[in-house]
TrEMBL record:
<dbReference type="InterPro" id="IPR051011">
    <property type="entry name" value="Metal_resp_trans_reg"/>
</dbReference>
<protein>
    <submittedName>
        <fullName>Regulator</fullName>
    </submittedName>
</protein>
<dbReference type="InterPro" id="IPR036388">
    <property type="entry name" value="WH-like_DNA-bd_sf"/>
</dbReference>
<dbReference type="InterPro" id="IPR036390">
    <property type="entry name" value="WH_DNA-bd_sf"/>
</dbReference>
């Protein structure tokens, strides 16, 4: 059983990751492939992944000789580059202690010794391994992962707004309960007691690891709980045009176009010009998006400026770069 101890400050600092983390999702996918978790539904996907991984990704296996990777790989980041930078920024003491924990008395490959010593060539080997593995495993389905993450984000936000954080937490983990400040998740292995002590908790869905929660508990950082989400199958590459068509059917093509234009600030006149509509129509479109919480309008003198909100960005399907 996983037991996460919250203080009042931790509840205030609990949040949902606004975007998926490429490296975290990659590590979850590789763990599922190697551990053969997920049952027969994952068998075809697992075989395809293991056959297609390039040799350059091989060093990643060296980091998990006992099945548990070093904690400095557990980073959030909206992009691969961001994730790489966060890993490389790990303090040398933590890198050394984690590699010593992972390997113990076992002889480590030479490049692992390079990580231990801070050798840039060794860090380049790690980065290239993660990059090639990402391109093989996740790049073909990353737009689908982003869409699924937005659905989870919206569901969590609505549940928390309507019923509170406790209902949102227990809703993410069927069978779990929150009792006297302790979130209990039965069946999670290995059994763990985690005390947040004011650091807060970041919730991150994964769509490639159906076997239970993954919890990163690094001193001095917010704890990150990666929980299984989705339909229980690894995402398959979809048709982005179909996704756009579905979104247009809900919002209407002109509203969707306006929402995407508002990634940059627009006055009513410039929005009307870009949409090839009248100023009155542009003002009405902006008002509709504003009433749904997807846009804001600010007035300066006689001029008004419209721009997209964070919710609008998520709905529009913008991709972080």
């Amino acid at each position: 059983m996983l037991r996460v101890h919250f203080t009042a400050e931790d509840f205030a600092r609990t949040r949902f990751a606004t975007r998926p983390a490429p490296l975290q999702e990659l590590h979850a996918a590789l763990a599922t492939a190697v551990a053969r978790s997920g049952g027969p539904l994952f068998a075809q996907w697992r075989g395809r992944v293991l056959r297609s991984l390039p040799a350059a990704s091989g060093p990643l296996a060296d980091l998990v000789p006992g099945g548990r990777p070093p904690s400095f790989l557990d980073v959030l980041g909206d992009t691969l580059a961001d994730g790489f930078e966060r890993i490389r920024a790990t303090g040398p003491a933590l890198v050394r202690s984690e590699l010593e924990r992972v390997y113990g008395a076992t002889a480590a490959p030479r490049w692992i010794h390079g990580l231990h010593a801070g050798d840039e060539a060794a860090w380049h080997t790690l980065r290239r391994a993660q990059q090639t593995a990402y391109e093989t495993v996740l790049a073909p389905v990353w737009s689908v992962v982003q869409d699924l993450h937005r659905e989870q984000f919206s569901h969590y936000a609505l549940t928390a707004a309507e019923h509170g954080v406790a209902a949102a937490l227990t809703g993410l983990a069927p069978g779990s309960r929150l009792h006297e400040g302790v979130w209990e998740w039965p069946g999670a292995a290995p059994a763990r007691e985690v005390r947040l002590d004011g650091r807060g908790l970041v919730l991150l869905p994964t769509f490639h690891h159906p076997a239970g929660p993954l919890l990163q508990d690094v001193p001095g950082r917010p704890a990150v709980l990666t929980y299984p989400a989705g339909a229980g199958l690894p995402p398959a590459a979809g048709n982005p045009v179909a996704s756009a068509e579905a979104l247009a059917a809900v919002l209407g093509r002109t509203r969707l176009h306006a929402l995407r234009l508002l990634a940059e600030p627009h006055t009513t006149t410039s929005l009307a010009r870009a949409l090839h509509v009248s100023n009155a129509t542009a003002s009405s479109l902006a008002a509709a998006l504003r009433s749904a919480g997807m846009a804001t309008t600010t007035r300066t003198g006689r001029s008004v400026t419209h721009r997209r909100t964070a919710l609008g960005t998520l709905v529009a399907g913008a991709r972080p770069r």
